[in-house]
Amino acid sequence: MSDLQERAKELDAADQLAGVRGEFVLGDDHGGVYLDGNSLGALPANVPGRVEDVVRRQWGELRIRSWSESGWWTAPERIGDVIAPLVGAGEGQVVVGDSTSVNVFKALVGAVRLAGGPGAGRDEILVDAATFPTDGYIAASAARMTGCSVRAVEPGEVPGALSSRTAAVLLNHVDYRSGRLHDLPGLTAAIRAAGAVSVWDLCHSAGALPVGLDEHGVDLAVGCTYKFLNGGPGSPAYLYVRRDHQAAFDSPLPGWNSHAEPFGMRSEYEAADGVVRGRVGTPDILSMLALEAALEVWSRPDVSVDAVRAKSLGLTDFFLECVEAYVPGGRVEVVTPVGHGQRGSQVALRCADAGDVMGRLIGAGVVGDFRAPDILRFGFTPLYLSYADVERAGAVLGRELSA
After folding, report:
1. By CB neighbour count within 10 A (0-12 exposed, 13-18 middle, 19+ buried), where does 379 fall?
2. Is the pTM here over 0.85, yes or no?
3. pLDDT digits over 113-126, tens only?
4. Residue 124 near residue 164, CB atoms below 8 Å
5. What is the pLDDT of residues 179-226, one digit of tens each?
6. What is the CB-side half-sphere exposure of residue 165 using CA atoms within 13 A?
7. Alpha-carbon torsion 355, 357, 362, 367, what sign?
8. What are the catalytic residues?
């Protein structure tokens, strides 16, 4: 047994989250290592049974009665209150539903309206220059709708780019390519001081590290649930609206679900009170209740965001150590920041033949992903990964890069 294998064994023996691994379907009998939880989380073991109950009993037997008797109607806010503490929010500020893209649109247009928009001299939206492409597309559309212009800036340059013209700023908490963790507290404070409204995309941070939405005064935030929250493919996203903004939040998608009297069928729209006004249409119940089951793991006494963050840093530190030990010199470049304060829960490596290498890794049982043109991306989900997994992945990576 190598020194790193011995280290992995010792680290796993001391891991307070080790017992959570059994809550997930991982196919360990095949000896594979799943390092793509930052794209799609593994299946929680309790989800199939819950979905079967929703389909067979709630839908099959109760049918329309389930909107009240099974709690379907209140699911968006109920599940939002489960997600809230995972992103540092109090109750009544998170609503679940729609996709991340739809929620980015709601939040960004709503942010411009909260800031007063062009009528108040606020006619510019700043957007993360390295953002996931859809966020940029949505920002451009929101700008056209509100009469604003869009300017792309690096997150670190936001304080210098803010002005009296800035209406809203859309930023990613963790960069999806590099895994860099941006300074949410500092950037949010700068945006607030400039009189603008902050919108944070939490897709690559929620469920992996502390966010602190309430603590840091974030205005609006969105995120998906199929990555570190393990909600399943296409599981519904969520929208955070800070409590003191809710009365003025003006969604560009006013649907019957967000109406003050949804069954009144009035032709005039009147927004409901609270975060409910972030809803649009009929909730996607099957995927929403699968998500609710997936989130039950966070109710375990041994699971907390702080414990997950500590293990995330431990896993990524150990992976970087394995890369240094196993991978031939000069074969890869570490893109993810080494400093804990700037690292999310993934490691990105630059590699000239990254696409081919990732294909070989997947064939060897180590599943990460490739981002064009030259990035090998490995996501670390502390709830179900072990240090032995990490050592095995590093060894396989070294073998493939030595071939």
Report:
1. buried
2. yes
3. 999 999 999 999 99
4. no
5. 999 999 999 999 999 999 999 999 999 999 999 999 999 999 999 999
6. 11
7. negative
8. 132, 201, 226-227, 377
